[in-house]
Amino acid sequence: xxxxxxxxxxxxxxxxxxxxxxxxxxxxxxxxxxxxxxxxxxxxxxxxxxxxxxxxxxxxxxxxxxxxxxxxxxxxxxxxxxxxxxxxxxxxxxxxxxxxxxxxxxxxxxxxxxxxxxxxxxxxxxxxxxxxxxxxxxxxxxxxxxxxxxxxxxxxxxxxxxxxxxxxxxxxxxxxxxxxxxxxxxxxxxxx
Length: 192
Fold this sequence. Notes:
Blueprint: H1 2-30, H2 36-43, H3 47-53, H4 57-82, H5 85-115, H6 126-141, H7 151-157, H8 170-186
Helix pairs in contact: 1-2, 1-4, 1-5, 4-5, 4-6, 5-6, 5-8, 6-7
């Protein structure tokens, strides 16, 4: 009986955590130093629940960053199941642009969270790099992009995304930049 009683608590706790992350993403993107108490209130959880999940601002900010990064990375596999490899890569680039704009909105919060002496380190972009590598290798094997482009090459080539700000009309500009990168990847492909 004890087990059945515990299960709803765990799923309820997970829902609380997800609600906090969702509200925090929105609030911290809008205002990097939004009070944690305001985030807890908007998420509909008490202070105790909030601090059990996220003991401090740094923990919350870095979890948002990791979560958003993992969402983008995970979408690569899904896109490869739905689209031809080069189209999956280009669609994933659009998702990466969305992530870059979210990251830009959170940049101050991330900087504040990771800049204190002895504070946590900024998470590495490993999941995104691994997703890029998967997409590049799959498109290369299909003959739709040039051979030998590494995930590091790709991330450097799209680095302009991180120079844009979400206050600009960034979507058309990002699309032009990513189309240019995609055209470069397709040039010299094994087959057209």
